[in-house]
Each structure stands twice: as structure tokens, then as C-alpha cells.
């Protein structure tokens, strides 16, 4: 992790919910001063206490990121109810308000009126296109989407998605920042609905759903196909490298051997599922039989997920 330069020391996080707090912790781990802002009075201050608790727990479990102690990282964090104070001195602004186009557009207009031209304005949106969320801004060349994967502290991928006017320099500076704080940034060359992660994820979900719905496999067993099969290798190599390694002479050889089979199977896929209540009834019931949908069971499974992700992140490191 490279050293933070004096010109690039302060990052403003707008919104103190789960994603805002996670981003704050990621940036703190890289030694940045972080100013967290929320327009609800007292919320940013409350977020500080939650971040402090989490940093201390991570340190105790010996999985705290970065070279600074929990106390040192927490000392770099401040909370603000005043937007101009929260933005003062920042070189990078990470927006983390709820997923609503109007709300985000309003936030960006307010932010733009307080910062200089050189400040990068970044959104955490998971599904809104940069050309839409930044449409009301005067200077869109410094705007970018930095879409994290939940929970960002353990899952390090960040999708960097440019606005059509975003400059290569802004992409490069954002990429360098994400590397410095220990994330794994993937650069999209242009915007597309769903970005890359959700497009791939939805393709997997759609076929898994169809297989369950058509009575070919159970909910439990289709999840096994991923966790004990595809997921084992996808944790460290992607689909392109998988193909490259799965034929004696690499990707070209793989395509010669399997292209016809791939095309045949892909052409047999059914239409996009409706995911409607009626259609979903039996799938939802099957899932809830495995993991009841009350808070106690769901919280326990989320806790298990995060613990396993921590272990996997450590192993990958």
C-alpha cells in the first residue's frame, strides 16, 4: 500500500448508512482522513461510534486492514452535519445515499457547488447509469461510479464505471486510489445497464431459477453447484482463465472443442424468468425451509457469510 500524499489526504463520504460506514473504514485503512456527512442530524455522529466498535472488533480478531491500529484509524475520522465543512479539503467524494435517482442528483448538485473542478465526484450506485445520475452537473468530466460489492470491507472488488465524458485521468486517479486502499478495481470502458457484476450475476441467477422452477434440481443442490463447483475456482480465477486452462492448448483450443456444445446448451435456455410472486412461491418456500426468513436465522447466516468471507480474503492475500 503506497503512502498517502499531502495533496490527497482527505476523502468525504456522503451518507452514513451501511455502505457509507464500510467505505469510511476502507479509506481509513489506507491512512486517509475521512469526513463522513449525513443530512439527518446526529446520524453521522452515531455512525462514528459504530465504526469505532467495528474497528476494535476487527483488531481483536486480528483482521483489521491497513498498517495503522484501530485507535489510529479512528482518529482520522470525523462526523459532519454541515455539507460545506464535510467537503472542505477533500480531493475525492464518495456518495452513499439510498438508491434513488432524484436523491442522488440533488446530492451531486449540492456537492458540486462546494468543491473545485479538480475534485473527483464518485457514486456508490449499484444500478443507476452515470449518464443519468450526473446529468444535472456542470462538469461531468470528473464524475465516476465506484460500485462496491457488499460487504466492501471483505469483498474487495470495485467496479469503476465512467460517465461518457469522464476523462482517462479521472479513471486513472480513481483506480490508483482503490489500489492504495487495498480494493480490487475493475475498469469498465463504457457504461452499461447493470454494470459487469450484476449482468453476470443475473445471468447465473436466471439459469439457476429456471432449473429449480422446471423441477430439474432443488434450491439446496443448485447452490451446491456453485459453492462446491464453480465457486471453488471462481474464488481465484475467472471464466476466461477457466476456459484457457481447461484445454491442452489454451482458449483457442477450448473454443474448437466446446463451442458447438456451448452454443447448443445456450440456445436451449428458456425466456427471462418473471420472478413474480406466483412463480416464486415454491422457490421461496423451499429456500425458507432451509433457512427460515426470520431475523434470527438470517442474521446468523449473514454473520456466517461475513466470517467466511474474512477467512477467504485472508487466504487470498
TrEMBL record:
PROSITE patterns: 3HCDH (PS00067). GO terms for molecular function: L-gulonate 3-dehydrogenase activity; NAD+ binding. InterPro entries: 3-OHacyl-CoA_DH, 3-OHacyl-CoA_DH_CS, 3-OHacyl-CoA_DH_NAD-bd, 3HC_DH_C, 6-PGluconate_DH-like_C_sf, 6PGD_dom2, NAD(P)-bd_dom_sf. GO terms for cellular component: cytoplasm. It is found in: Cytoplasm. One of its GO terms (biological process) is fatty acid metabolic process. Residues 11-190 form the 3-hydroxyacyl-CoA dehydrogenase NAD binding domain. Keywords: Cytoplasm, NAD, Oxidoreductase, Phosphoprotein. It comes from the Eukaryota. The record marks 147 as: Important for catalytic activity. Residues 194-280 form the 3-hydroxyacyl-CoA dehydrogenase C-terminal domain. Its EC number is 1.1.1.45. Belongs to the 3-hydroxyacyl-CoA dehydrogenase family. Homodimer. This is L-gulonate 3-dehydrogenase. It comes from Conger conger (Conger eel). The lineage of its organism: Eukaryota, Metazoa, Chordata, Craniata, Vertebrata.
